Amino acid sequence: MKIAGLVLAAGAGRRMGTPKALIRDAAGVTWAARTARLLTEAGCSPVVVVVGAAADQVRAELSTEPVELVEATDWNEGMGASLRTGLTALPPTAGSVVVVTVDVPGLTGEVVRRVVERAGEDVLVRATYLGAPGHPVVIGRDHWDGVIASARGDEGARGYLRDHEVVLVECGDVGDGADVDTVGELPPGHG
User: Fold this and answer.
1) CATH value at residue 45
2) Is 177 exposed, middle or buried (0-12, 13-18, 19+ CB in 10 A)?
3) Which of 9, 4, 27, 35 shows the shortest CA–CA distance to 98?
4) Residue 179 maps to a domain
5) Residues with pLDDT less than 50, the chain
6) Has residue 114 been placed in a domain?
7) How far apart are CA 169 and CA 186, in angstroms?
8) How many domains does the chain have?
9) What digits encode the pLDDT tens for the residues 116-167?
10) Residue 36, domain member (yes or no)
11) Would residue 16 count as lying in a domain?
12) pLDDT given at position 181
């Protein structure tokens, strides 16, 4: 079964003061590129990156990455708009998709591989970190229409996941699922 990757990187990062997709890690790699690479290295194909705020800058930063870019023109509505845009852009050959927001700098390849191992067309899988739910989330194709219909505002798939059976995969031993929203939360060397 083909597993796609989806990076939600369209937000303006208002609390951060800049789009999070353009923040650089300690090695100088943008968060958008770093996240896309983790999905690619875990075997996701294609990897689709949803852009919105600063779309041209993010496109330029990703110009050498093996990703497909899609623009959420209604990105300012919130994560729900990005998720809907991304899911509708995926090819019919994908049986499931690994979804991750761009603002999880503690995400590792091992986390992505663990959740991918549980993927399936009829499955919802979510990484947890010491019991707390986080990203990535695997959404089987059978759930895409329901997620698209319910994804509104900044909730993304949260309500849909709450109302359906989800396989939880503990990943706290191999990654950190904290999303970063402000400059004060940035890991050392990121900015």
Assistant:
1) 3.90.550.10
2) buried
3) 4
4) no
5) none
6) yes
7) 25
8) 1
9) 998 888 899 999 999 999 999 999 999 999 999 999 878 788 889 999 999 9
10) yes
11) yes
12) 77
The SS3 call for residue 166 is coil
CA dist 138 and 42 (Å) reads: 13
Q: Average per-residue pLDDT in the chain?
A: 92
d(C-alpha 141, C-alpha 99), whole Å: 12
pTM (predicted TM-score): 0.94
Amino acid of residue 24? R
Residue 57: strand, helix, or coil: helix
Structural domain range at position 77: 2-173
Peptide bond into 136 cis (omega under 30): yes
Measured CA distances, 111 to 53, 159, 170 (Å): 27, 23, 9
Cα gap 102→116, rounded to integer Å: 18
Q: How far apart are CA 135 and CA 137, in angstroms?
A: 5
